[in-house]
Write a structure and sequence with these properties.
- By secondary structure, this protein is mostly helical.
- It has a single domain, classed as ABC transporter involved in vitamin B12 uptake, BtuC.
- α5 packs antiparallel against α13, α6 packs parallel to α8 and α14 packs parallel to α16.
- The longest helix has 36 residues.
- The N terminus is likely disordered.
Length: 340
Amino acid sequence: MSGAESLAPGATLNPGVSVLRKFLPLLILAALSLLSMLLAVAIGSVPIPIMDVLAVVQGEGTPLHQTLIIELRAPRALAAFAVGGLLAVAGALMQILLRNPLADPYVLGVSGGAAVGALGAMLWGMGAAVISGSAFAGALLSTFLVFGLAHGSGSWTASRLLLTGVVVASGWGAVITLMLATGPAEKLPGMLYWLMGDLTYARSPWPAVIALVLICLLVVPLGRSLNVLARGPLQAAALGVSVKPLEWSIYVVASLLTAMAVTTAGSIGFVGLVVPHMLRLLLGNDQRLILPACALGGGILLTLADTLARIMIAPEQLPVGVITALLGVPTFLYLLYRSR
């Protein structure tokens, strides 16, 4: 067989078709993202027909529907999508940094620091803006604390960073338990809802949305370097990657993403753990594709989970963290079974 004949099947491929095939999963996820947002604003204690939702999008519709969609459901759906995307991207970055498939956005104690800051503001009777600011400050404090202790007087390794984060997270957990045990009984429900993850009082979604878009634009060009780093620091250094600056950047970016997500919606588990694993099984391990896919897939998952949280026992609402745990545990066990 000649060389021309051996290349014949591949030579017939149109470059445009090849590019479309490569990005087809992202197009499908983008379409599913729009569908999840549409369901989130249409479904609730007062269901709204899809045509009426589209009418509101076009600036028409009844005043009731405009109020429900524009002022209540759309901001919450945007916040849920952004938080889910932030957690999924942070989880994927943490798994690359620590080279540990069980790493998630909360493994280094960021959520514990945010929880201590937020619960402290609640105990002092502060408003929602101060609670969010205190949560973000607590998350940043935990980030610097873990990095400083893990670095010490020398360099840090992935295992040292992981162990330091686990210890700091345990310390924050003890402080949280103390605050719950000594807090006033009338403030405990709100504190517990925040700890379980709740989007009921999520403020403006735009900071989280902007952060998600900016981070995706920042980390996707680094996809090749992240692919090499995922194979190990020695291989990455041999191929010309500046390992330490890249690892520091991953740690800072993942911590800031987690801080933004926790500040917006409290501690929501399993999104940053399950979504990257699920997408790697479906799409492979190319970070240039996985990271934007995580942003979309995490957003879809949390948007649908929040919709379920609103309607399962309507007019009462469940914390969205409960739904993600109920969905995440069997999903992760199934993924483990498939990867045997």
